[in-house]
Structures
1.
Amino acid sequence: MAYINGIGKTKFGILNKSLAQIMYEAMMKAFDDSGLGISDIGAIFISNFLGGPCENQLHLNAVLASLMPGAFKPIVRIETACASGGSAIWQALLATNKFDNVMVIGAEKLSSLSTEGTTTAIAMAGDRQVDQSAGLIFPANYALMAQQHMRKYKTTHYDLELVALKAHENAKLNPLAHFFEKEITIDEIRRSPVVASPLTVYDCSPLTDGASAVIISKNRYEHSVEVIASALVTDTISLTQRDSLTSFPAAKIAARKAFDEANIAPEVVDVIELHDCFTIAELIGMEDIGICKPGESKEWIQEGKTTRYGDLPINPSGGLKGCGHPIGATGVSQVYEITAQLRGEAGKNQVVPSPEIGLTHNIGGVGGTAVITILRK
Amino acid sequence: MAYINGIGKTKFGILNKSLAQIMYEAMMKAFDDSGLGISDIGAIFISNFLGGPCENQLHLNAVLASLMPGAFKPIVRIETACASGGSAIWQALLATNKFDNVMVIGAEKLSSLSTEGTTTAIAMAGDRQVDQSAGLIFPANYALMAQQHMRKYKTTHYDLELVALKAHENAKLNPLAHFFEKEITIDEIRRSPVVASPLTVYDCSPLTDGASAVIISKNRYEHSVEVIASALVTDTISLTQRDSLTSFPAAKIAARKAFDEANIAPEVVDVIELHDCFTIAELIGMEDIGICKPGESKEWIQEGKTTRYGDLPINPSGGLKGCGHPIGATGVSQVYEITAQLRGEAGKNQVVPSPEIGLTHNIGGVGGTAVITILRK
């Protein structure tokens, strides 16, 4: 289908740099990794959610062009809330029909806003008439889902704590993670204050700045990883229009389409980067992808099946919870991390034995957008 | 390459409707026009610039999905400032490799903001560090270009008045134009107050709401118009980084690429929809496209060559000046208008003899983005 032929990523964290700076940094790292330069790139797809409120800056394609005057490339910006990165990759893959090499750069600079300002800005991913006016911000949305998951499947907060603990155990080793070298114990997680019951601080991904870039090529190069499927599916923006609060139909359908496109079964996946914007999202994501049955994700977590040494490592990078969730960068960063895993270059976060097939799961809002990408060594 | 197989457009003006409503209305009109339905559409590309400040609503792909629950389509949003519409069409064309039929919906709802709020919001299309901090908003940017064009080529404000008069003469006949049935005389234009010298009120396109949709298909149908070229080029975001103030390099390069791709010369174009966000932009656009030499556009205007009855009608719809400039909708609306012209269905705005080849010219900011699309009957 197409090949990931270069990856780059800034440190994720609170960065004293502008959107333009981190886009450029991630881009240059991907060039260094690939051996390609700007003249080899046919088009660039930028993924960003909140350039407007965070920097009063839209038209980011021209901002990027300003950093390479005279290049005159086709560059566009894609926005689908927290799934912007996956969506930009989906679009870039379509573009490999026309161009030999294309680039995706995801970037977000959340720390420019106050915490309250960020919450208000992120609420724009939810329906303005129903959800925003009712104060149904994202921690509240995911709390409703957690309540229903607990009620229906006897999931407990302890299961969520195990998800958070795993994320931090992995992020601790990842030099680019927001929470690199941060030691977190299950007791600290258990004692953390409630955000929206039953979710506590450690159930929520942090506000983070960062950028990621990948180069996607029509042809295979030396270090390439193959993209064998990419599926993007949209659904209603608000939970109030859904039949179930324990699953995202868009993610289930995207996963099924992606597995069909790749012509593989969920069982053969070796490693997953999953959109754990909240811990409950990891349990729901596992069930939506179809690696376990509805309600069984908690047992997988309890049995340690998804740790770095388990049968199916999930978020060995630290995920959104441990690496941070610079919104527009997240979906691109997931592909970065899976590519590193499939190349065997994930350092202390490397999954062993060396994985052959990896999957990324990127969600916008409360499942209004879902993008599943499958990669093969 | 691909075919325009359905078009739809709302009234352009101050509308008492939401972004969701006008997106839906334009979409349904395009379905009615094409005979296709949502089940025939493989993917949808939304073009919108200011959903954030105008409606506190991003994640518009999920907003649209909410209007057709159960459809689970791939939908994304594209933003490249005022060139968002052209950019979405450029992307949709890439997608016809994968999907038989795709849709582009451009929409903007500017009237939700105060005039001052809109000016601030639109300024996000300009560089935040250089232009925004200096107060270099878009009328000021284009005024600088007009001053230089006047100095270099002896263009006068009378030439700009003729551009405005032509726009209103055409818009007066177009039922979907913001200024439908509005009579404007050259005296009124001449007496209008200065906005940014030398530009006056009648040199500026108005703040307008509206939506447009087109369906693009891999195969030719009965009423299809062929897309024979589409070129998207980016440049520096700020005029302060440019060598010249009388031309947009991105537009010149995009036009050259498009003519190369279509394998035609500028001389064979029969009708143009040109991004006249300000009257001076029409003169510069004519020169950038290459239909006349630098500095000669004023003579074309003086000789009436670009009126509806001239050698090469430009903006027979009324353009941005006469129809309004609902930013995300504009580039899509241009393709709507050219398609209507090539089909011979442009009503009182129809160019005669029936045109064979049409071109759209869509600009973001002050030439940070340029998209040229060429269509053939």
Note: The first strand of chain B starts at residue 2 and ends at 9.
2.
Amino acid sequence: MTKPPKQLTMITDLGESKLIERLTKDFEIHHKTTTLSIGDDAAVIDFDSDCSVISTDLLIDGIHFNLDYTHLKQLGYKSVIVNISDIYAMNAIPKYILVSIAVSNRFSVESLEQLYQGIQLACKNYHIELIGGDTSSNHRGLQISITAIGSSKKEKIVKRSGASKGDLLVVSGDLGAACLGLLVLERENQRISKNANYQPKFEPYRYFVGRQIKPEASKSTVQILEENDIVPTSMIDISDGLSTELSHLSQASNVGFKILENKIPVHSNLIEFSSEFKLNYLDLVFNGGEDYELLFTIKQKDLPIIASIPTLSVIGGTVHHGNKNLLIKEDGTELEIKPSGWDGFKDLTKSHIQTHHDDESTNES
Amino acid sequence: MTKPPKQLTMITDLGESKLIERLTKDFEIHHKTTTLSIGDDAAVIDFDSDCSVISTDLLIDGIHFNLDYTHLKQLGYKSVIVNISDIYAMNAIPKYILVSIAVSNRFSVESLEQLYQGIQLACKNYHIELIGGDTSSNHRGLQISITAIGSSKKEKIVKRSGASKGDLLVVSGDLGAACLGLLVLERENQRISKNANYQPKFEPYRYFVGRQIKPEASKSTVQILEENDIVPTSMIDISDGLSTELSHLSQASNVGFKILENKIPVHSNLIEFSSEFKLNYLDLVFNGGEDYELLFTIKQKDLPIIASIPTLSVIGGTVHHGNKNLLIKEDGTELEIKPSGWDGFKDLTKSHIQTHHDDESTNES
């Protein structure tokens, strides 16, 4: 990030109060539960008899996003999505966010306005209010911390721990696309840094790049469940790859899962494009992450309705008590799925699907 | 921060899930309103008919704290205090926190455990539960983001905007001490960096240094108000210095204040020690910040009770409609108090109390 030209406003010219005022002036209040919003020591919400559902996430440049190719408006949008996805994963409706940013003084006020335009667009699309936050200078780069607050009737809350034997495993949307988008962005970015005249090629990958830079949370899934009066037995959002999320459900519920490879929903070009990166598409599905789809279990009685919904795929089910999760290939081969999705503290270069050599769980299918 | 010796555990050795598990294993659940705590996509709280009161803060090394002389346990403690002080400032009771940290891989797990020990101690002392958070690596240093959630009956919530003409202005504790503590810490730290054999002198300043490194939130004030069935007309916590907080109350309530200099509660050594730094003690009171005392207005009918409480001081009152705030010196001189407390984006080296040359507001006293 170079120092902005003179016509841009430096953060130091405004000061914290005026900066917050300018960044948040166009945000709207939607909810009758909002008792007090931005401008006091704290925000006040009155959910009456509903539960509050609360989640928080950090996003840090160079770790969670790359400012070389991430537009600040898209980043603002995505920051909100990442967070509210956790609220949907509880079968709750996100209503509020608090946004804190720590930012180098080299960012202009105008660039931060773009960030907040993205946040505002997500608020608009998902009917969410910005009710607070904090703003600080930082030595370098940009860090975003978002807390999302949703609400739900207590009896509708879905935890990770409710799956039991015989339940079916369902996933929304398609998997692996956001990770492929990231690979494309990184490849094109490297090519540009080697050759300033290089024209990046995004056209055939548009869908995948879009899933990476402007993801959506699976609001529609929660709406479908509500409309059909289905409460999943367990649920999680797929932020770190299917292998990790599956292991979370598995451990919390103390069940094992079998997934049928040919039932996993993927975009028709995923297999072909994965091979460009010398990857099996399953690497992207299991270890990619950032899909922000919902992974959940249902009772078998709910299968007819779920199976009739085009955006949902039944990909397997619980098969035995225990935490071992298996992938069944088309030829009947069973592979053990190891939990090894994204970890902010580790480099992920290895493949995490290993051939299953243990006979124990094949007996329990 | 140097690379820790071999016997310490590196964050990368543990990975994110195990790190969170280790840092949060000793935290307790206190509240019957806790429906779901750490370990799922989001936490769930059921406040029933009470309102949720929510605030968030960022703390960044080199900006909000200096790791040269800040012990991580004290930092953890202070991070919680800073946040829950905002909840008390709404006349609410803090109940929950979510803690996110972004940290360089050079921090050991053991040093982060110290940070969390401080967080845990604050949780214990203030009867608060840790219900969530996020953990990420970062390029350098340490950033802490805390969201605090409290509850209150709707009719007990106190905003900044409720003060009206004739109300009295009250402050808890004493002011300016934390800033003096910071000056001492910075001075001694500079002396050490110039001379490694230098023995820092903290003894006469123990109280002031303590207010800086291990502040407390004014829980007792909120309890006193509750016990005496007094609801302030407006309230704010003093995080950025009296001048800024006064201006917030003044602008939100559209009233002006007069403060009597000789009523401002300060520690008996503040004036003497301020002069060591060639500062007037009023600079520390008005522009210092980090006192985390409560500043509030009451109806005159509540004066007898408030005046009888040793930890509270009536320092002035509202005098006219408008936003001009005056300091009345013992000799009757009036000085206008300009709002210029701490701003994360600006260097603060100037004094912010200016002699008042405008006759307008003196007519309205």
Note: The two ends of chain A are 55 Å apart (CA to CA).
3.
Amino acid sequence: MKASIPKGTRDFGPSEMAERNYIFETIRSVYKSYGYQQIETPAIENLSTLLGKYGDEGDKLLFRILNSGDPFSKIQLEDFKKDEAYNAESLSRAICDRGLRYDLTVPFARFVVQHQNEIVFPFKRYQIQTVWRADRPQKGRYREFYQCDADVIGSKSLINEVELVQIIDKVFNLLDINVAIKINNRKILSALAEITDSKDKLIDITVAIDKLEKIGLDAVKTELQNKGLSNEAISTLEPILTLSGSNEEKLKTMYELMNGNNSLNKTSDIGLEGINELKSLFSLISQSNIRNTVEIDLSLARGLNYYTGAIFEVKALDFEIGSICGGGRYDNLTGLYGLEGLSGVGISFGADRIYDVLKGLNKFPKDLHSSTSLLFANIDDEAISYLLPVVSELRNAGVNCEIYPDKNKIKKQFDYAEKKSIPFISIIGSNEISSNIINIKNLNSGIQESFAKEDISSIIHFLLNK
Amino acid sequence: MKASIPKGTRDFGPSEMAERNYIFETIRSVYKSYGYQQIETPAIENLSTLLGKYGDEGDKLLFRILNSGDPFSKIQLEDFKKDEAYNAESLSRAICDRGLRYDLTVPFARFVVQHQNEIVFPFKRYQIQTVWRADRPQKGRYREFYQCDADVIGSKSLINEVELVQIIDKVFNLLDINVAIKINNRKILSALAEITDSKDKLIDITVAIDKLEKIGLDAVKTELQNKGLSNEAISTLEPILTLSGSNEEKLKTMYELMNGNNSLNKTSDIGLEGINELKSLFSLISQSNIRNTVEIDLSLARGLNYYTGAIFEVKALDFEIGSICGGGRYDNLTGLYGLEGLSGVGISFGADRIYDVLKGLNKFPKDLHSSTSLLFANIDDEAISYLLPVVSELRNAGVNCEIYPDKNKIKKQFDYAEKKSIPFISIIGSNEISSNIINIKNLNSGIQESFAKEDISSIIHFLLNK
């Protein structure tokens, strides 16, 4: 039998795990420093919880789990037949009640409703777990991957938004990745549709704005025309399409447009609300020592179907890749499960893309791969008896160390240390035993130091400070 | 729609997560101190990797994943029909190519074979991941749960066994659980069948020995008779059935039995080999400062179908529950995938049962639930502006703190701190701002201390040392 794993899934060996844990631990420590608390939800959810939450396309990408026992004995397969073919959707619903988690947001909404009486609101939770999507695998896209989400639910305060921007800034500072943090507000997008009399064309407008950089102003205008926007509407949008300058300048241009200074002489209340939110947010951001660029970007339209306020997206500046973090505010995520009126805001780090950025820019810390500090070579049983108490005291003091288990050639034992990036080796022979010492050799410099066997504290000090 | 999760699965809220992470982190830190390195394998494996590895019963407990796209369009359902019923097994094989991980051992064997050219042998790996079993859920038995495994593969040295015993001892010392570590050897069990001329009755013999404590000597003898063992065989086994005393005494009794001092006058080479292994192991253990009881227990027969040497099992002494850790040596785990001759030995901690023991004995550390050190109350925007730089410096120094996001009644903000077990609160009003101070109140003692706003290092020192 050939050893293999399904397409789109991955094994992670020790060095990849060390690198991945470095990313997860960085994100986790920053989440915790802001008071976010960890939860975990099951990988397996009821299909009724998942279906219909991610659009038709999402429903198709759900992994479904065959019911246990004999799922076929409980149904008549003929009932699902029409014109010689089986109705795959209703047949699979009949034999599959459960599916795999597709993201962390829907299970979180379900969790909040189910545990609303135990939860302390505002509820700041983080969650770092695997999700599964039956997507076509390609470079950088997997069927099984981690998401790293933080959300606060039950608070409308913009302090949450500014703290999420601080968290993003802090995580990428710690990881040494330069980023641009882009911010939009769904209310402003809605206002654009409103002041151009095109409420039904919200998505067309944002899709067109998104293409500006790629295809240029004239092509975007043509596209808007093709989508049915009037010339008047397009000329109203023009200040937005050519929006530039500092965040303050952008806010001023948008304010004028929303305040009636447009070809339709319309004032948009929701637009002014969105602008006020952005203003307050940037005022708080300016007091927050943020190191990375934070900029208004009206072309951000991610999660348009559920975000209702702020929208975030983060781009790496020195490496070509899609968004590496994103999020936004949603007003009614838990409404689906019967709990209305809870507003929330959250972000999600894309660990796999962040991994690619760190790899591409060679920014993983150098000492990540050496998890063992010292290898004791295995010469004979007498040496092992001599070593056992020393090894035990070193481990108790927090020094990770190993005894090479087999009495192999010393060359092989050195190879083992080298391949595992173990920096120190100790070879105990009859001389060391009779002089009651422990020799420790630095495998990089070749320098060897001797310690009295009883002087464990010096050995510990030596190893922990290297 | 009702918010619910499938039977046998669980949500873990913040306090359960803190308790569970305490267990996982304890196990992980001990594994690492012995040079074990982490790997992760995908949740989804090819069914061909999983099927046939856990017996017929195990095959039935595998969660199978419905193929994506339209799995029914590729098959003729009629082909699977016989006598008006569908053949569930072959039909489900036709529409499911993949399943969920059932344990961590088979995926580890698959991993070793697949990555044999990248792996440094002897390979010491640990793995803490979820597994899934379509078992009937009951108290303490779940369909989705974590396993915490460590295995070393590619070494026959008994140093590995003794280190695993040390790891078990250390983990339960750190968790403050008193345990008995029971050790058996498969070779001795084989020898019992050999010296009683009952090679085909190995399992019957071990099952009977296992019942000794429950049903008594006479009932066990009757059971062995019913299973077809001769009176001679049973009298040969009698010294084993009544085995008692210290480990040395047990070894001596077994040695005599295996060395021909039995009613058949048979000598068992494999039995003597097993006894020698136990002797060496106990000699190493006696040099290892093990704090818990380690005892020979011939009734241990877990994993009899693949263990070939040492067998381990751990029982909690002060709490009634099944085995909380177990493992053993296997000689040919990777043979299934075409890589022969690799011997390995490993253990697995049962995190859910350990959780129940710690809960039942009230042994979780008391400070596990407070993850935030300090809550800044939210009075007005001026106070927030005053606070933002302080909060940011505290977080940079490793103090987890929060700003209450909304301007709610102060009573509600105090409630929030109390429910989240936050020990300190700071309320900044116009007085504090005009005197340029930060007040910090201990919510348990009610004592309040004042710090100059600029004297961040004193605030940090105060909070980190409380």
Note: Chain A has a mean pLDDT of 93.
